[in-house]
């Protein structure tokens, strides 16, 4: 009887220390993810600067119809992967919250935000770069209704994520960093923020779904200000 009790206590301590070390590992991984994100943003900024300096050479390079399908392939691959990752991440986090299990919720949140930082962020940057190259080769964005609307919706989605998801993630990480390893349930505030993240993510993904539809069907219309 006492032995059984001891085993249970040891098991629960191991469990708690796994969660705790996962939170610590997450904080270290966040630093690495930030470095990767900054690296990609610097590459993008460097490409813009090079594009301005070597404008004539860039126009000559893009004036090759043979290049179009390769850039289109990269664009479709990148957008499909990051869009799918966003949708699956939302469903996965939602499922973990309904389980009510502390370990599952923390592990899922950490995995989804790891994927967002390490996989989705670089893919978004590839999507924007290839999207801009395609636009330069395709025609005038200001004259093409579906393209302009898609571009604005893409910006809207990014804006929703930046103004709502980043502050929420900051609060979530702060609470997770101060978690009591002995507590059986998550603090109410943390559960509330994680539930709120579901709605924020949905708000960011819906405009992207419309962008996807516009990019494929390319309906012929003009925006009122065009
Ligand atoms: C900065 C943002 C973006 C720009 C400027 C852009 C621009 C373009 C352009 C010019 C094309 C070529 C259309 C053609 O050749 O017929 C294209 C194709 C495509 N884009 Fe985007 N795009 C952007 C973001 C996105 C996003 C966020 C998605 C999905 C969520 C997406 C999905 C697609 C798809 C699926 C195609 C292939 C359409 C086809 O071949 O019929 N794009 N994009």
Number of continuous helical runs: 6
Distinct small molecules bound, one entry per kind: protoporphyrin IX containing FE
Coarse morphology:
elongated
For the largest beta-sheet, the strand count, sense and barrel status come to:
none
Mean pLDDT comes to: 86
The helix/strand series, from N terminus to C terminus, equals HHHHHH
Low-confidence stretches: none
How is the secondary structure organized here?
Layout: H1 2-53, H2 55-62, H3 68-99, H4 102-138, H5 145-177, H6 188-217
Helix pairs in contact: 1-4, 3-4, 3-6, 5-6
Bound molecules: protoporphyrin IX containing FE (HEM).
Residues 72, 75-76, 79, 83, 127-128, 131-132, 134-135, 138, 147, 151, 154, 208, 211-212, 215-216 line the site of protoporphyrin IX containing FE.
Tell me about this structure.
By secondary structure, the protein is mainly alpha-helical. It has a domain at 75-226. It is 85% helix and 0% strand. The protein is built from six helices and no strands. The longest helix has 52 residues, at 2-53. It is elongated. The N and C termini lie far apart (79 Å). The mean pLDDT is 86. The structure holds protoporphyrin IX containing FE.
Task: Write a brief structural summary.
The chain has 226 residues and is an all-alpha fold. It has helices at residues 2-53, 55-62, 68-99, 102-138, 145-177, 188-217.
Write a concise keyword list for the protein shown above.
226 residues, mainly alpha, 6 helices, binds protoporphyrin IX containing FE
């Amino acid at each position: 009887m006492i032995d059984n009790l001891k085993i249970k206590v040891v098991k629960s301590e191991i469990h708690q220390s796994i969660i705790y070390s996962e939170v610590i590992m997450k904080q270290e991984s966040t630093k690495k993810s930030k470095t990767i994100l900054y690296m990609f943003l610097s590459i993008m900024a460097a490409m813009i600067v090079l594009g301005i300096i070597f404008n004539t050479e860039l126009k000559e390079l893009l004036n090759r119809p043979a290049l179009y399908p390769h850039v289109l392939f990269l664009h479709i691959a990148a957008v499909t992967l990051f869009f799918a990752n966003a949708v699956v991440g939302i469903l996965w986090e939602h499922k973990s919250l309904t389980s009510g299990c502390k370990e599952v919720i923390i592990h899922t949140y950490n995995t989804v935000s790891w994927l967002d930082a390490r996989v989705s962020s670089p893919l978004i940057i590839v999507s924007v770069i290839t999207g801009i190259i395609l636009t330069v080769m395709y025609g005038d964005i200001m004259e093409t209704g579906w393209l302009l609307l898609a571009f604005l919706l893409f910006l809207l989605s990014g804006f929703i994520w930046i103004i709502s998801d980043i502050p929420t993630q900051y609060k979530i990480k702060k609470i997770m960093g101060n978690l009591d390893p002995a507590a059986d349930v998550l603090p109410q505030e943390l559960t509330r923020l994680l539930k709120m993240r579901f709605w924020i993510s949905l708000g960011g993904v819906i405009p992207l779904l419309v962008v996807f539809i516009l990019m494929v069907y390319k309906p012929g219309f003009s925006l009122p200000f065009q």
